[in-house]
Amino acid sequence: MLLTAGAAVLAGGLLFLVWQRFYPVTAAAGWAYRVHLDDLPQVSALAIDREGSLYWTRELGNGRGSLFRRSTDGSVTEVLAGLSKPDGLLSFRGGLVVSQEGGKQGVLWLHDGQSETLLTARNVEGLASDGRLLYAIEDQAVDGRLLRLDAVSGALSVLRSGLREAEGVAICGNGDLFYTLKGKATGKGSVRRWLADGSDPVVLGDLNAPGFLMCNEDGLWISEDETHRARLLLLDFAGRLHVILSGLRSAQTVLALAPGRYLVAEQGRGRVLLLERLPAQQ
Q: Is 224:211 a contact under the CB 8 Å cutoff?
């Protein structure tokens, strides 16, 4: 009887894991998605250059991470190897900026066929920019920082310190700056708005490991870096929260291609999704 009970428990556990693995992604009304690229293990950050080539990172540590490029003709090449958990990627001043989460590492600017270290920090994840200023955030257990680099003068400022499990950062067109605190395994992750007085009010709370942030004409996009049943959220400018995708596994970067058209990196399934807003029904 004990053997039978043990086998039943084991079988139930395996079924639960299978169910979690294949739990379907669902889109909100008015949206649809399809798989754009597959078989991309540990895919994390996404960016597009001026020629339309798509870049992504493979987020492996200890110098095993890489940056890849898919040209418009479909060919794929490894652009940069030897990275340690490359987790942020951004088109910036005619090139690309890539961050590394694997300890004390350089934030690299790739341009004109060369690589330049813009700053060095610990466990840098999210990146954001308004074209001149570059924002970077550290994912530390107790003392992460939100950094700002003036790319022209080279001045580096610490906008906030003492952050716990900070991960994403976004700058909006009106200058509003937001960042995430992951709250790993607690369901108490949050999105906060940075204010000069240090109050940093909570914009959204009770989230499951919010990671990436992106702000555009639709509002503030938030992906949840949760292993199972993660969501892609949109906070519109009227303050309404929309669950655009659910059932994701470790959602990462959201990349805007055109109005109503986005790429979403789903690391847990090693793929990139194409998300599109459906035409309004007449």
A: yes
Nearest residue to 67 (alpha-carbon basis) of 85, 84, 81: 81
Provide the 10 A C-beta neighbour count for residue 214: 24
More confident residue, 200 or 23: 200
**Segment (H or E) for 252:** strand 251-258
Distance of CA 109 to the CA centre of its chain: 18
pTM of the entire predicted model: 0.90
Q: In what order do the strands lie in the sheet with 144-150?
A: 124-129, 133-138, 144-150, 156-163
Rounded to 5 degrees, what are φ and ψ at 16?
Answer: -65, -40
Which is more confident, 123 or 1?
123
Of 205, 106, 94, 184, the residue nearest 147 (C-alpha): 106
pLDDT digits (tens, 9 = 90+) for 225-235: 999 999 999 99
- Rounded to whole angstroms, the Cα distance separating 98 from 86 reads 7
* Beta strands at 230-235 and 241-248: parallel, antiparallel or unpaired: antiparallel
Count of CB atoms within 10 A of residue 35's CB? 12
Buried b (16+ CB within 10 A) or exposed e, 89-115: bbebeebbbbbbbbeebbbbbbeeeee
- What local confidence, expressed as pLDDT, does residue 8 receive? 52
3-class SS letters over 63-101: CCEEEEEECCCCCEEEEEEEECCEEEEEEECCEEEEEEC
40, burial (CB in 10 Å: exposed 0-12, middle 13-18, buried 19+)? buried
Rounded CA separation 179/47 (Å): 19
